[in-house]
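I would like you to sit down with the pair of lines that follows and say whether tokens and residues agree.
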Amino acid sequence: MDKTKMNDTLRRNVALLSKQTEQEVGMMPATVAPLPSVEQVKQIVKLVKSIIFPDYFNKRQPDEAIRSYYIGVHMDELATLLTKQIAHGLQFCEDCEKMRTKDQVYGEAERKALEFIDALPEIKRLLYTDVQAMFDNDPAVSNYGEVIFCYPVMNAMTHYRMAHKLHELKVPVIPRIMTELAHSKTGIDIHPGAQIGEYFSIDHGTGVVIGETTIIGNHVSLYQGVTLGAKSFKYDENGNMLNVPRHPIIEDHVTVYSNASILGRITIGHDSVIGGNIWLTHSVPPYSRILQSKAIDAGFQDGAGI
């Protein structure tokens, strides 16, 4: 091995990569402060799981006083970590010039963190409705623990319900980190901006996509490969893409079977069933049954039909 050549190559590329390119500078926030930490966001999710499902992700504590102690410890750590990560994420906000000092940034971050913590009882309530929905909709489930421990939908929904609240609080970046952590692990891609009601279930889950402006009612069930996406995009006079409602509205008690694609700002009426492999770009009324046409069973001889 030519050690001199290796050292020269390393030094040359360290020097090149240490220089900030014009493109790199343009993608960084104006403030010089630590950026959000993916590892700390993972810890935040872990803490919330231990608070919402304490008997599943902690040592089981039937005694309420002891349980309260452990939840209190986790809550204190959550408040500290969340405030710090929100503060780091606020560098990416659109009107950051309003917060010029570190104290202002951390003051705003603490306010948002406390609002999030105040929302935890409602997040817990919603997640337990999701557990119930999955238990009720899948005959393969033998107990609630199986849903909480094993089903990818619960991992995805825990991340999503946390991220959605932070999205409502206008926290930049952190909500997307949360949902993308679940996406990479489960194959379920839910944008934090989507609105999802209670008793929501996704069976199997892999390949499900739920876009930013999707609205989903209560008691909705999806299967693997379902896309609730946009059909087209609108642009302003300068050619910039507009962030306007562009994803479907799914009303209450709707079931969408595997690999169906529902695209555009259309409405699927309540109590409807959308069959597998359907491509749907128009609204349908309540109680609809949208199914594939039956295959034609015909025999051909001597190359006929080709």
